[in-house]
Amino acid sequence: MLTVAKETELKLSISSKDLPLLLEHPLLIPPGKRQKIYNIYYDTPELHLMQQGIAVRERKILRKLLLTLKINHTNTGGLSTRSEWEAPTVQGQFDFQTLIDDPVIAQKMHLLAPQLVPIFTTNFTRRSWNLVFRGAKIEIAIDQGLIVTLRDQQLVEEPISEVELELKEGSPVALFALARVLSRRVRLHPSAASKAERGYKLFKNIIPRPLKAPPLAIDPKASLIESFERICLECLNHLQMNDVGILRDEDDEYIHQARVAMRRIRSAIKLFSPCLPIPFVNQWSTTWRDLANELGDARNWDVFLNESLPFIQKAFPKHPDIEVLEKYTIAQRELAHKKVLASFGGRIYSVKLISFAEAVMSLPNHPHVKNRQKMIIESHKTLEPIKEEDTQQFATRILKRRHQRFMKEVLVPNRDLEQNHQLRLDLKKLRYAIDFFLELYPKKRISQYLKSLTRAQELLGQMNDLATAEILLGKRNLPHADIVQAWVIGRQSGYLSMMPKVLAGLNDLRAPWKS
């Protein structure tokens, strides 16, 4: 029976055309070990293993055959952590009770073994190097090959072109530092999907789609730095689930979700700024603001084309001005999307993601953070000890403050467009903070609170879309206002008249953190 190993690795996608450049990197100049690897992945016909985050494979390297079982634990910011058991085997024999040292998992897998059938294969060439980098032992593996499966009686395949950095010993931060160094001349992009995940998606013919941010599980007793790291890496994961779709340019929602992820990261930096190093806050707040702004133009034209323009066309069917506007809108949207593809398909964007993950994971050892912790510890010897907040206390204090500020804005009478814009910003700040700490409060009360905010958020969002539309239309530099601009202004007035009634419904809003 073998003891479980913990596998921690950072997976990076690379274009096959960039491989010769990567192999010229000084760290890869010594010839690496070269292997042909063939894997068969097994599951039950109902895919029970996939549903539980378990992968079973037989790996063939020359005449050697290995049975492997992996259980996925975390995948954040491109960094994945798994439990792994591996041992020599005979083809088609799944001796899990000998392989696995956990009796519960071993018995479970033993019962499933008779049902296992091949689902897909991976066939690739691996070049690998072992090195010590910044005190950590790391294996670099470059894999080039194919994922193949049988679907509807036909073989379908997908290329493999990736770099894996596996931590053998040391700090996971070193993986991101090494990825940044290897990215000197080529684009290495953090990838959340393992070969097993990609194989299952190919087998099931799962069409990629934009994804919203999943709920965050936060430890209420965790330190602020620990919670900040957790939030940032989860936001990075949300971003990476969507930025690959931006490059396919098939669904505008990818841009929206990527922009939301970036704004959430920036919101987290601002939220936790009192306990973060000032240079970190200044650098990364600016970086994420600029990256989100690069998506802004494309997102604005998407919204105008898909949401605002259909209402205008319905109001003025077959009007010649509207036909001209539609052509203009499509041309501007295409131009904005081309700029996005050029930026987010480039090396610099990927390096920023890698560098940010490295910076976040390095925070516990930052001099500013360590000095702050030292001051807190030493204060306990004095008559005025410093009490450090845990995440629950911090969240409640922040949410109270943002709630009060929002409610103060709600009570402003006779609101104009500028005041409504400020109200929308305060509401967004409140919503982002709530999303981070959602799991810390009673589910029913959180749900009621958010439901009360939704109508105001929708109306303020619609008003913002119209304000943005007015700016976009102004870029045409027409000599006089046309029928479309008049429609936008009229609609804004209509929404403005609805605000008092919507906001009146928030007067009895009960915060979920109150007893």
Order of helices and strands: EHEHEEEHHEEEHEHHHHHHHHHHH
What is the CATH level 1 assignment of the largest domain?
Answer: Mainly Alpha
CATH fold category name of the largest domain:
CHAD domain
- Poorly predicted ranges (pLDDT <50, ≥5 residues)? none
- The CATH architecture of the largest domain: Alpha solenoid
Strand order of the largest sheet: 1-5-4-3-2-6-7-8
Q: Based on CA inertia axes, which overall geometry fits?
A: globular
How many helical elements? Answer: 16
Number of domains: 2
CATH level 4 superfamily of the largest domain: CHAD domain
Structural class: alpha+beta
The pLDDT mean sits at 92
Strand content: 15-25%
> What's the number of extended β-strand segments?
9
What percent of the residues sit in helical stretches (DSSP H or I)? 40-55%
Main sheet, how many strands, which sense, barrel? 8 strands, antiparallel, barrel
Tell me the radius of gyration: 27 Å
Q: Distance between termini?
A: 52 Å
Oligomeric nature of the chains: single chain
Provide the descriptors you would attach to this structure in a database record:
2 domains, 16 helices, globular, Hypothetical Protein Pfu-838710-001, alpha+beta, CHAD domain
Describe the structure.
By secondary structure, this protein is of the alpha+beta class. The chain folds into 2 domains: 5-206, Hypothetical Protein Pfu-838710-001, CATH 2.40.320.10; 287-504, CHAD domain (Alpha solenoid). Helices cover 53% and strands 20% of the residues. The chain has 16 helices and 9 strands. The chain is globular. The mean pLDDT is 92.
